[in-house]
Amino acid sequence: MNSLDINIINDDEHPIISEEKLLECFTLVSEYLEIVDTSVNVNIVSNNEIQEVNNQYRNKNKPTNIISFPFEKPEGLPDDIMNDFLGDIIIAPDVLKSEALEQDKSLENHWCHIFIHGLLHLAGYDHQTDEDAKIMENIEINILNKMNIQNPYI
Hints:
Elements: E1 3-9, H1 19-33, E2 37-44, H2 47-58, E3 66-70, E4 85-91, H3 93-102, H4 107-122, H5 130-146
Parallel strand pairs: 1-2, 2-4
Antiparallel strand pairs: 3-4
Helix pairs in contact: 1-4, 1-5, 3-4, 4-5
């Protein structure tokens, strides 16, 4: 049986899409990656908070929609501890809302796209090269299609 766990940390109670919709995204990504048991932390933060993180870890002093931190198991940690943990995702709902308005997209669909994007980063995908970007975008498009969400890149 598949065991997927999303730990949502939203201390300031920012508006987010339903946990069920996030779990649907997580399930589809897990199925694509053929991961049976896994968990992820999702931190919902303000624009100021994500800007601080973006500046500290990416040297970009501006808010962004999402940042992913894949879990790297510390040396010496027993093999059976934390094997199922993908990592941490930080999301700024106000950035997502602005982007959805600017791009004339449904807010829920944009959330799904960006969350899937972040999960793929946790799994090791990136978009540093055109080839890598194309691979990642195609995976996103295929997963979103299963949710009846239009290709976000057109």
